Amino acid sequence: MANLEGVRIDRDGIFHGLEANGFDEVRVEFAPDDGADAGAAAVADLVRQAVNTANEVANGVAPDSIWASLLTASLAGFSVRLGSPESEEALDIWMEAFRGRVGAGGLSGELRATETVRLPAWDSSDPMVTAYVALGPLSALSGADMSGWAERAVRWAAEAGGDAYVGSSGMNQLDATGEVAAHLASSLHVAWSGAVLYADELASRAAIADIGSDGLAIYQTHDASSSLAAQADRARAAILAEADYAPYAFVAPTPRRAYGWDDRGRALPPLRESIPAYALRVHADLWSRFVPDVHCMQLLTDEHLDRVADLSGWTTTQATPGRTLVEAPDLAAWLRPGGPAPSIVDQARADFGRALVPADDVR
Fold this sequence. Notes:
Structural class: alpha+beta
Strand order of the largest sheet: 8-7-9-10-11-6-12-13-15-14
Radius of gyration: 23 Å
Oligomer: single chain
């Protein structure tokens, strides 16, 4: 290891990581000596500038020789993916340029390979009760808002027990520090996305909360021993925890892990034929006043309610001022294998009436 003033480089460790990945890529992290907060805007901006500078310098010497991308927070600082370095020289040039820019910015620390893990096989091919919650673009949220979401997400997911994993930008780390919420918040600040998974492999139980830059969050639970009612309770808890912040949310059983709202297309019941799954993500601005389709559980605004035809056959609960939780009286009929009967879905669509988004609005 080089012991130079400023930024030290664990070259051997980085090359070992690159070799372990078949020389295709390696994730490297910068760990500041003073434990600088990865969520601090000034520190994150300096590291981002250093990544851009290193890309420019390395590719100025040899075009297309190496490229760093997918910057995010790591448990120790910041991590970036170095893809397809053409040679050891290209990697060395990149690291030296990064070191120079970070050092010029007044930071010292270590540049080294990031310790990452593969997530345990926690999900199921059977539909899992899944809550989809719309919070709005992360770029519009304050740092305190992002930290607040991270704390609530970790609190919800931690009920599954087991080990904690934090991930973003295609990277996952086992987090045994006790600072899971802080690390998740740092991912949101740096990468504008993040996920937390708690998994107890022995109990076959897991819970994940995931949010993208668009602010469309997903909460999934898998528990081989729990009843449908208990799984519905967990989804309801996720929605109610965000009722002060979300203009819309719904529950739909979804097989396998859902990575985005497009995955509602795999859920039950099937979406209306006129509503493509991608529309749920692309037209997120509509969901504060319309719903894409009917679901067994939905969080609605007053504007939604003004459009609904008839909720006399539904259970309604005021979650917060201006937000109402609407649930089917027989959740089991909606959550059963195969989804609800067509007659139940048809009646629900009639009940929601003008609250259903017009097909022309999502084309």
